[in-house]
Amino acid sequence: xxxxxxxxxxxxxxxxxxxxxxxxxxxxxxxxxxxxxxxxxxxxxxxxxxxxxxxxxxxxxxxxxxxxxxxxxxxxxxxxxxxxxxxxxxxxxxxxxxxxxxxxxxxxxxxxxxxxxxxxxxxxxxxxxxxxxxxxxxxxxxxxxxxxxxxxxxxxxxxxxxxxxxxxxxxxxxxxxxxxxxxxxxxxxxxxxxxxxxxxxxxxxx
Length: 206
Known about the structure:
Layout: E1 6-14, H1 21-24, H2 44-47, E2 70-73, H3 85-93, E3 97-100, H4 105-113, E4 117-120, H5 123-134, E5 140-144, E6 149-151, E7 157-159, H6 164-172, H7 176-181, H8 184-193
Parallel strand pairs: 1-2, 2-3, 3-4
Antiparallel strand pairs: 1-5, 5-6, 6-7
């Protein structure tokens, strides 16, 4: 997992609350066996009409929001099923950060395990960011995880709180495998003291 320290990127405003994981990545696209390739299906039902045509009014289809890497959205983002594919789709599309007033717990946990930063701001702060992202030139934000601050070049600044363990993992780029490998020497010493038998017999009894 890549380390997350500071990120500056273009912002896409998606001013909707209670966006569930089936909207983020619809169920018909969950058959893939790898983690990559889900970005093309992100918000598929909103990005496409009933006949599959592109919906030009949807925010991510608009020219000014191409190459965005920060999503600003409404409360309870990522509710619904626990599918990790929702995080994979957002990351594969190019998002590094999601800003919202609140997140579904399982979604936030999945995001942290995959290097996607979720930042909870107040509803008023999110409303202001949505407004700035909709007006004027393409809008950029900087998210500093070390300082736990969101800011722009026009004077907006907001601090955010984050669980210390999650913050440590993101700063150091540690998923569950990486956390385990931090104890590689201790694991090796344990295995040396407890060698596996050369042959394991399993008896089945009726």
